[in-house]
Amino acid sequence: MTLITRRSVLIAGTATAGAVLVPAVSATAAPTTKKASGTRISVGSGETYTVSATTRVSELSIADGGTIAAPDGSSLSLTVDGVETGQLLTATGATATLIQAGTYRGDVVLTVAAANEVTYETLTFPFRQAVYVDGDGVVKDKSVLAAVLGGKLTDAYAKNVSITSTGECFDGVYVQDATYTLDRPAISLTGNGRCDFAGYGAAVVGDGSSTTLVVDGARVDNKGVVRTTVIANDGANVIVKDSVLRARNGVLPADYQATVETPYMESVPWMLGLDGNVRATNLIGKSTKATYLNSTIFSETWGALSVEGGSGLKLTAINSHFGNTGEYGYGTYAIGDATVRVLGSRLDVGSYATIIAGPAAVVHYGDSTGAAVAALNTELELGLSKAELASIPARNTVVNSGHFGYMFFGAGQLTLDGGTVINSDRATFLNKGQQTTINVDGSQGARLNPRDGIILQMIELDDPGPVPVNGKMMNIGVYTEPTGDPTKDATFDPTAVHTTDGAATFNSIELKGDFYNGMRKGKNMVLTFEGSRVEGVISASTAKHRVSSIDASTFYELGIVTNTTQAAVNNGAIVQLNSGSTWTVTGTSYLTRLALAADATVRAPRGKNVTLTVDGTVTAVTPGQTYTGALTLTVA
User: Fold this and answer.
1) Which of 126, 164, 367, 571 has a 20 to 30 Å separation from 621 between CA atoms?
2) How far apart are CA 593 and CA 31, in angstroms?
């Protein structure tokens, strides 16, 4: 192969052979203290063989106890017939990998590359990647080009390339502070990764505030612990279009201990009511953006589109189909002050459309109207042409969840509008003791369809939290259901609206379902209805889990409760029926405040009557009035 200048085409290969863009030296050029003969390398037990430069042979044999390594400051990767292979982590929780003992035959290339060390919190990860790109283009000295098959690779784009790995912690493409396009890549990584907060073991990583990475027409199929498909980090702008991304669980090391210490975390914290050890994507860092347009993204469990620690993060899905192929998992995750927008998309999720972990997350589900997409094109610098914008059909969003609609694990703001439809087996909104601002606008046809008949459920946070063990926070806590009646907090007013309450506003919508505040400590459920009709029970309640104790083996019981309506203690239920609103009361409801506009109505189902008592006194329900105290509405 003739090497040509860096600014032009780097690879024009075939689908059957890898391209090595640094000189391949013979095995005899390697240190002669180890067995080397012709096109074969043999490393005996107890021996260490140092490969000084990229080497191609027909056979590599490493005996048990033998080691093959690169010089200090370099990494060593093994490919056989263009597939990265043979590399495993040296131990559970370790960062380094080592080529394993065995015999490898075929087109065997040992690539010596410059180190790409990435530090995340307390650990430094020695990255190896098929393609490394910086502001000047592809960096051959940091790339394992023997793992890049077919297509064309240039300093500006890669087209129709194929990257396959069966070793551990090998990345496909790593883009650092550069503008780059991946056009129709096929990437398959099988075997465990190590840290999806750093992207160690991911198919594609876009890193740095100067990065604009476009992934167009990609096919990524990963299987392994934290073997993520796409990572956007540290201010990068990652745009994924017309792509299919799939991540399947791997097998955790037998001695792995579940933890929330993020440098060591390789499985989802079960306290979220989830299981699994790989999420399809992750968005991290400061002011990072990730947008998924007309794409399909699925994790087996855990999560499809994740947002983790950082600030100013923006996650957007437009006209995409995403979720989980397994029983548990979420569509999106919103933490910190992240902004998460889902427009014109379909979600098929195991557990939740979104987990809102706050404390200032903003989430919006709506339609992919032309105006909305054009505005995002400008805000997110998507680079879509007028023709591309015109070709994007306006669609509504549909969520199908096997458990809940949305779970508030922290404070946050959620808006549902347009023609958004939320179908869930359990409550549409599960609020675990958090401050919320929920806004549902049904004027364009939005609908909420909880199959268990509960629209909003408030409960105490049932996360037992991690437990400190030898200086690390481990996921071995146990949730125990509280016993006895809650104690009245004399300092908390259940009839007043507080900024820390769980609030929800429903505009121009017809609702059929119940609303329960099962909190034990001071937090009110504040419901406002604008031009809406609601049919169901709205009440303070006692909420009990199906089991009295929940640990990692019964994680799926989290959030699942039964309600018994009763008078509020520290869990007020406040209802504001504004103009044009009607509440049809279907069962005994205990409120602490009821305010009616002049044209608002409270009624019973046909053939029945509703009775209001205020502090034990039967009181007429009169439009335009406000009632406070111990309110009980009964239907007979």
Assistant:
1) 571
2) 83
Contact 357, 410 (CB under 8 A): yes
Where do we find the tokens 């969003």?
Answer: 397
Instruction: List, in order, residues 6 or more apart from 349 with CB less than 8 Å away.
Output: 304, 323, 324, 329, 330, 331, 399, 400, 401, 402
| pLDDT for 511 beyond 60 | yes
- For residue 247, pLDDT over 90 is answered with yes
Angle at the Cα of 620 from the Cα atoms of 617 and 622, rounded to 5 degrees: 140
SS (H, E, C) 120-134: ECCEEEEEEEEEEEE
Place of tokens 């902004």: 339
How many Cβ atoms from other residues are within 10 Å of residue 147's Cβ? 29
Residue matched to tokens 């912690």: 169
Q: Is 630 helix (H, G, I), strand (E, B) or coil?
A: strand
Q: What is the DSSP string of 394-463?
A: ----EEEESS-SEEESS-EEEEE-TT-EEEESS-SEEEES--EEEEEE-TT--EEEETTSEEEEEE----
| pLDDT tens, position by position, 194-207 | 999 999 999 999 99
At 593, give phi and psi (nearest 5°).
Answer: -155, 135
Stretch 411-437: mean pLDDT, rounded?
Answer: 98
Residue 257 phi, psi (nearest 5): -115, 125
- Quote the tokens at residue 461: 């946070």
Confidence of residue 38 (pLDDT cuts 50, 70, 90): low
- Distance, in Å, from the CA atom of 425 to the CA atom of 507, rounded to the nearest integer, reads 23
Q: What is the pLDDT of residues 282-339, one digit of tens each?
A: 999 999 999 999 999 999 999 999 999 789 999 999 999 999 999 999 999 999 999 9
